[in-house]
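Re: folding output
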Amino acid sequence: MPSISELQNLSGQVRRDIIRMTNSAASGHPGGALGTADFLVTLYFEFMKPNPSAFTVNGIGEDVFFLSNGHLSAVWYSVLARYGYFDVNELGSFRRIGSRLQGHPSVHEGLPGIRMASGSLGQGLSVACGSAMAKKLNHDNHTVFCLVGDGELDEGQNWEALMFAAARKIDNLIAVVDYNGQQIDGPVRKVLDLGNLKAKLDAFGWTVVEMYGNDIHDILVNLTGAISELHQGKPVVIIMTTHMGYGVDFMLDNHEWHGVPPNDEQAARALAQLPETLCDY
């Protein structure tokens, strides 16, 4: 079991990977990826603990994760590589022509750890509902996790999935909303205000948990609490407050870093704030 300091160190290294990947490719979405590093590291290394050598697309007999906001691919690729799904050095091929590490997760090349192509926003939660229903039909007592963006909740398909999961009592599902308040065109409250999101999700029939996604201890406590709410007739959703660009001062809470890679000078400044804790690829 990794300690909090070990999870923090790993999250820091994942952030270094994100900066180096997006800088090298001169393309990508660093802001949200930096903000969700703590969550994905903790989810994989402390809770899901999958077996990379036994990866199957159907995910029978293990917890599964779906990244609905697929533009955050850099953080997921880094976590998968650091967990052992593929060689860490492959991160250097991010967004290259012919690479398995496409800008949005793809199943075309059979990259271990990826079960659905994502990036067309709004679809991931629907897929997660189907996966969770399949587990119930197969008497597979494992959990389905799905990460969606707050800006992604502008997509109506998410609200259909939210209604469906509650109506069908899909209680082996945890949806996590990355609530950083930013999307590509500006603050979420200005683009299309979500209003009282907690009250809405509660009204839709979900068990609602709140946590701060840039603090490992808070993630450990509240994700444990969310898991304890499963199998009680209701799906569970976590409203996870994060900061876009977390770990890099000039990117922090700035929607302009949603989909803009750092240039060489900016990457150097960012890496100076993110000490190398494991090893760079």
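--- second protein (sequence, then structure) ---
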Amino acid sequence: MHEQPLADDLLAYIEASPTPWHAVRETRRRLEEAGYRALDERERWNLSPGDKVFVIRGGSSIAAFELGTAPPSEAGFRFVGAHTDSPNLRLKPRPQRQREQIHQLSVEPYGGVLLHTWLDRDLSIAGRLLTRDGDGLAETLVRFDAPLARVSSLAIHLHRDVNEEGLRLNPQEHMLPMFAFGGEAPALEAMLAERAGVDPAAIIGWDLCLFDVLPPSRGGVDGEMIFAPRLDNLASCHAGLSALLGAGDATKASRGVVLYDHEECGSMSPQGADSPFVPELLERLARAFDDTSDAYPRALARSFLVSADMAHAVHPNYADRHEPEHKPRLGAGPVIKTNVNQRYATDGESAARFKRWCAEADVVPQEFVTRSDLRCGSTIGPISAGRLGVRALDVGNPMLSMHSCREMAASADVAPMIAALRVFLSRLD
């Protein structure tokens, strides 16, 4: 794919992925179309060089690898890491309540949400339902495309100084969306069951998110802008997956992509980057071809991780928030993210390697460093590198409105990142 089809394909990927569970389902669909098969962590694995496999944990994290022609203990792993989750509003276990004859949904902010950006949006509900299945559980994904709810802002007539004083939102009191007026409360469980095609009595749990029903789109005079929810970090998931599926013939090294959940709230979960998910997976892959006691550490010593998470483009209205010589521009290519206090995994060596891969892809990277008087964000990069002991760096495409209900990036940045990651996954050095 060239630049424009890749940008449009990113929009399709985001539209199919209103929640982490949907993102994993869409990723799985694309992997299976490319010949990848699922592995069950509970079973023994029979693997051969060249196999294309994936593992899902918790329904919201997925790792896919194409096994190399050489054992990992001799050639290592090369993989891209990203995350499937984005800041949003999530329904509480007993969400329905009524105030002033208006039915509302109790929600809890997930991650570092820019709360004000969720006001006056056409919102709907998506996520997963857990239902009884004999003695076990079945998981069903659900999504409403019609707008069901809205968090209305307060009229300026009732808060005359809001533009001067700023808007202060209490997430417990001010962020409850309205979804019906007066009378008897709509039966949310019945609505969910009908949409998912399950028995309402069988529903015994859920993980449900609100999302903006306005589809991702191209904007600007020539379609050079991308307006979309969840660019952080579905754009990086799409880039890593697209690079893997377009990497060409197998190499000696095993190569893959790992898309984690729960980055936005610290990565401490059974399927997050600060879990045994990927260490256990890589050890099993390494020992499938070399059962010696040191096969796994030898494989890690030959491995490399590119942590891909979106980067902060310079905002023309707030340019002073950037380090003067480190102002990534929209449409100007991938960004190498550096922090000497290890909030990012990049060091001089890993940055140099990425620059070489960019040069081979005919891509010129940009650089980002947080101002020394501002706190730096972080990624799965340092967490994964620390758990695994592998060389790593952090990169990402530039964007604006990070953690907003709707974010902004440049269509011209989609293809160069994929090209650079494809070179990374195709080389041996």
